[in-house]
Amino acid sequence: MYELAQRRLNRMQALGxxxxxxxxxxxxxxxxxxxxxxxxxxRTLHPQSWGxxxxxxxxxxxxxxxxxxxxxxxxxxxxxxxGFLDNIHRFIYHTLTPDELLWCASMPCxxxxxxxxxxxxxxxxxxxxxxxxxxxxxxxRYGRRMQTIAGVHFNYSLPLEFWPLYQAMERDPDSQRNFIxxxxxxxxxxxxxxxxxxxxxxxxxxxVGSSFLAxxxxxFRQLDPHTHYLPHATSLRMSxxxxxxxxxxxxRMSYDTLDNYVQSLSRAIATPYPEYEVIGLxxxxxxxxxxxxxxxxxxxxxxxxxxxxxxxxxxxxxxxxRERGVEYVEMRALDVQAFSRSGVSTEHMCFLEAFLLLCLLxxxxxxxxxxxxxxxxxxxxxxxxxxxxxxxxxxxxxxxSVVDWAQQIxxxxxxxxxxxxxAAGGECYRDALRAQRAxxxxxSLLPSARMVADLRASGESFHEYALERSQAHAAWxxxxxxxxxxxxxxxxxxxxxxxxxxxxxxxxxxxxxDYLARYFAGQGADISAAVWSEA
Length: 535
Known about the structure:
The protein is an alpha+beta fold. The protein has 19 helices and 15 strands. Helix 9 runs antiparallel to helix 11 and helix 12 crosses helix 14.
């Protein structure tokens, strides 16, 4: 599959427009638990000074009041993404009470029970109530603890000027919109085949606080009285105790075409599920689910990658895809990096950009049932035991060394990194590739291995280790200056978000039940696109 990528890159160079590969848009969505100085989950509300979690474009909440999510705009360079994310953290820490800070890891701090996790509130507008009820439904379906796992999403789109050139080179007679959709789904299929590489290299959750397992410790080893782990794990977040959820094992999503993907997603949202029907829509008069189907909403489907399109007011994500096609892809397999102050580094983003371009340019056949099983096997195997000596995965029906396969992928990335470095000026892409090749040769350099080694050497529990790093990150951001211009802009965004929320709450023409009925009937509702970007 990599030979086709090389041939395509050679043709671009011969035609003189290979630089069109560079300059794509990228952004990050990063979640972090808000905790107390003692390392307990914060029970306070989302700080008012940060703005409305419902309508703020860059600072919101994910599942819990104590799980803020920071969103960067789409930028043309990874350095700009990192800079904006750093500024969000500076603002956060210059406005957050000294008694609280952000947890630096993906796996959560110690949580006694599910009721300790406060579900996010979004006010009393219909869309605010919908987002809250959706989260209540996640509690009834999966429990709250799973929802406190934090991650990083990397969003990426090719430059607009790339597509007509690429289509002409491929001599595809289809419309440009259909061509773009086909190519993004080719990228997604290949990422599904090769995406295990991300938790292998960047997984940073090999251990977990014992309280998270709630007694389900049979297959885990005890590192200390308060910490469990798997010796060769890379990302428990991406395993079956995290977002590889058994409740969604029956879902069979098609990535062959956009139409097939939307149809399979829509079918899951419309298909009743017995376990959720038993829960029902109400508990003591309180609405506890949006519906009793396999998925309440499209965002409930957990996957390594999603095709995305910015939504219009009242529009479902699948409708936006169907109407206007794929705009960008959302890669969801990154752990929060405990070794990075903001949870993700420029080096990681450079590597991921080159990797996604390889996935685009390489051969990408449809995924059949046998390959689907192999993909799921590889994903879970790497999450649970990716650093195991001699580990073998399944590639095209045969067992192959995980190291050999990863080396092949990185070799195929080399010329792409050269092109991206030439366009950017410098060697950040080749440096990122060299760093991961070194880690592949010496697994002790992987963040998952470093974390286990640090815990063994220090004798600290996971809780003590993560809290210590969280405090160090917090101290750095609190001591670092926040430019007045940046501070003022964040205050403006915060105030504008509260104005927008109040406007939504003052202008409700439908009761909540009618609102839901119209939404699921695809009739839309008067809500801003920014509000609905993520349920």
